[in-house]
Amino acid sequence: FAGGCVMAASLLPTRRWALVMLSCVEVLTATGVMFGWSSLSIALRREGTYAELCDDDRSGCDAQALRLNAVYTAGAFCVPLGGMIWGPLMDVKGAKWTRAVGMCVFSAGCILFAFSDSKTFDAYVPAACLVSIGGMANFLSHFVLAEYFADDHFGLVHSLINCSFDASTVTFTLLELIHKEGASTQSLFLAMAALGLVYLALTNETVWAGHLSPPAKKLTSSGNEDGFGAQSPQYGARLDESGKPFRRQLESRAFIALAVWGLFTIYRTMLVLGSITEQMLYNADGRDASHAERLVRVFNFLILISVALTPSFGRFIDTHGIAAGLALVNALGVLTFGLLVARPDWSLYVAFLAFGCFRAWNYSLMTAYSMGVFGGASFGKVYGIGVGTVSCFAAAAQYPTMAIVLGGSNPNFEGLDWAMLGVGVVMFGFPAFVHFRTVEGKKGGASDAANAA
To answer: pTM for the whole thing?
Structure first.
């Protein structure tokens, strides 16, 4: 461990940024890929997966859509479940161990998915779970790298890692395009399994130069030693829960507010990702299947634009504070659900772009908040167990939501979308809470400094 810290401390800034870029590539291709389900479901429908549930195998039906959504729900549920498993383990075992085991699980899931068949060997649900659980280990293991940018680019590095996770939806988008040209889902998932094993082979000190372990002393990106405290400077003393026992952290107002925010933002995120195909089919008086499929492809590509905007948002957090970032992200969520019910394609394109930013930037905010407020030493437990628990509830609610909407005589998601818009308006309370706590903390710190003088 000591040798790794020496290597990390002596690493050139360009090499450290190269590791950030490697992290982004790994997270992009082997973490939250199941959230690109809307594209993968097109490929599975094309192969006739669960078509035996329909009277007419060629046209598809609601029974097939529900069974495919059950696979997505299981995969989506296992993303936060993976956080609950790996978070505490990472705090004890370290990021290197977590990453290595996670890549084994991810590859095993890809192999199981490759050999699944709805008629003869229906293992899609456990395969989706293994892919998600293994991918979550890989995702969490990269945040230790942010501690090497504690006082200058903390928010930026968090945003880059999180937006790469959110952009991992493009993995299934690309697989679907390759599938359209004639490749089978079996060959595509075997290729993904091989990629996971490549990342497993890269889990060594030669590549990471000590950056899979936290720094002994916190460093700026230029390699200078500096004090990190337990938080990014803009959060203020009133939001500092670092150094407290885990139970007291969970009982704090700062965590309860985060949990409520996470529950409703993650539910809205998973709702859109799991229902976008059906929303395009049924909303706004309905669309034909080819039009809906084209809109889904546009959706999957437009939400990736948020990746190009990531650096500006990361600097926005570092400059203006996390409260301003929360308010901006919540406004994007409100805009998303306000436009999903619209008929014109151009308004849907705006909704897709707004959703991409809402989703990507929200996870950036939650990880930065968790590490900044509660400290790096308990990040795995707070984010994995705390946020993971509410995320499991959000994910588990997807299937019954779909069953209720699709079970109606005239299925559409417009009423639900309007309800989610109303939830978004209420959620402006969280950035307000963070803003006032931050202001109070800074005033208190200034008063203490004046009294000491």
So the answer is: 0.70
